[in-house]
Every structure is written in structure tokens, then in C-alpha cells.
Amino acid sequence: MTTHTLFTRVYNHTGFLVRFASVLTRLNVNIKSFTVISDDDEIATVSFTFESEDNNQVANVRRNLKKQLDILSVGYVK
């Protein structure tokens, strides 16, 4: 298994974390680490690490997170 780290810039709204976790749950992603840094009252940076044997799963996670209204961007750390 390979460890992957994604980071997102998000609107810091109530209930965001529940929706974020719901996306990952639907995709059967087990989070190894999770960090939220609030830049200000409106924007936060979320980074998380997970393991996957399949690069298609990483692409699928990125694609599904980008569809969420509160997410501004999704990046990948190599």
C-alpha cells in the first residue's frame, strides 16, 4: 500500500467536517491522519493522509471532493 496526502482549501462553515467525512466514507477511505488549519474565519486548509493500493482511488477521491460546494481546491502532495 502507498500513502497519499491530499490538501484542500475550504470555506469554514458549520457542518463542513461532517460532509467531508461523508464523502470519504462513501469512497471507503480510511484516514491515517487529519489536520485542519484555520487561516481566518472564512477559509481553512484541510490535509489528510490515507493508504491506497490503487491510484484510481486517489483520483476518485480528488474528483469527488472537488464536487463539494464548500471546497475551493484539492491538491496532492507527492
From TrEMBL:
Gene3D superfamilies per UniProt: 3.30.70.260
Domain ACT: 5-78
UniProt superkingdom: Bacteria
InterPro entries, per database record: ACT-like_dom_sf, ACT_dom
Chain coiled-coil ranges: none
Record-linked Pfam families: ACT
Protein name per Swiss-Prot or TrEMBL: Acetolactate synthase small subunit
